[in-house]
Design brief:
Two copies of one chain form a homodimer. The first copy, chain A, is an alpha/beta fold and 198 residues long. Chain A is built from eight helices and seven strands; from the N terminus they run H-H-H-E-E-H-E-H-E-H-E-H-E-H-E. In chain A, helix 5 links the parallel strand 3 and strand 4.
């Protein structure tokens, strides 16, 4: 039908959200314009601000608008234990579910040679610097318990061993093949406490 | 856990989208920031632009960034037939499913006294002006076939009769209790063609 130029553009653009197809995008656009313009204005502003200001923590690679994220900058968190996770979302999940008081390192992925994802893409240079610095006593490998997550954990465990650092893997309370992000707090907490040396 | 101030704000703001809870909002935020920053930037810009520029058509009340929408401004569309719909989305649905070549009028709702929605909220003053102008021969009532949609159609039909304008109701090919937006094109087209005088 006719134009509705800007409205059509907005609907198309909403389809860039994961899980949103043309039909839900249309519903979202109408909802925002007819019932929540203030929410739409704020969301627009925050999206632009987030893209402009949110980068990666210099120490742990998580998403943050600061040079160093709040966990890394927090003097109350222990420097000798490092929890390795696949995604920035996993930092939140682990921190909410457990009593872990150390720091994190975010891979933003897992080793996957077939997809061209090797150590370089996962910040291993930064991770090895950290291992070489002499402050680390334990590395907790909290990558997903998928085949690739397991392989990544083993690879990092071997590097840690070379630096004389203890590497532990979160216990298999986590269902095999499962992804950390979708697991309930209780199971995850148990898995965390039941971790054993790799 | 720690701050992630701007990221948390963004996630909360994404929850203003219909059907989006905290968990999917988080997934959306991470997806945009890690994998589609250009899409996020564009969506942010379009949301702000849409809120600032999209208003209501002076003639038919649909959403448009122009003073008069493209359907109302189109000299090839007939001025003597007016299709009344509940929502701006219905304009698109009817226009895509049928061969209708007249114009539209968008109520943005339906009569619902219990919710305080009366003729004033649905633009009836504008609609009566249109009826009084002498250009209209037929009004097609394409409100939903819910109880309130039916009542709204009957109410408008009576006003039309006073102005000597023929009022038709789209046929009951549309399932009773169903909403226009979710009906397949074939059924809707049949209902449109099978319309009869109210
Ligand atoms: Zn950090
Ligand atoms: Zn119009």
């Amino acid at each position: 039908m006719a134009n509705q130029g800007l409205l059509k553009e907005l609907i198309q653009s909403l389809c860039c959200l994961p899980g949103v197809g043309p039909k839900s995008a249309q519903r979202m656009a109408f909802h925002l314009l007819l019932r929540n313009r203030e929410g739409a204005r704020q969301l627009g502003r925050l999206l632009e601000k987030a893209v402009a200001e949110i980068g990666y923590c210099r120490d742990c690679r998580t998403l943050t608008e600061a040079e160093i994220c709040e966990v890394c900058a927090n003097p109350l968190r222990e420097n000798d234990t490092l929890c390795i996770v696949e995604s920035a979302a996993d930092v939140w999940v682990v921190d909410q579910a457990t009593t872990f008081k150390g720091k994190y390192f975010v891979l933003h992925g897992r080793l996957s040679p077939l997809d061209g994802i090797g150590p370089d893409q996962l910040g291993f240079d930064l991770l090895e610097q950290r291992m070489a610095s002499g402050t680390l006593k334990e590395i907790i490998l909290a990558t997903n318990s998928t085949v690739e997550g397991q392989a990544t954990a083993h690879f990092i465990g071997e590097v840690a061993a070379k630096h004389g650092i203890q590497a532990t893997r979160i216990a298999h309370g986590v269902p095999m093949g499962g992804e950390l992000e979708f697991i309930d707090s209780g199971t995850l907490s148990a898995a965390f406490n039941g971790r054993r040396e790799l």
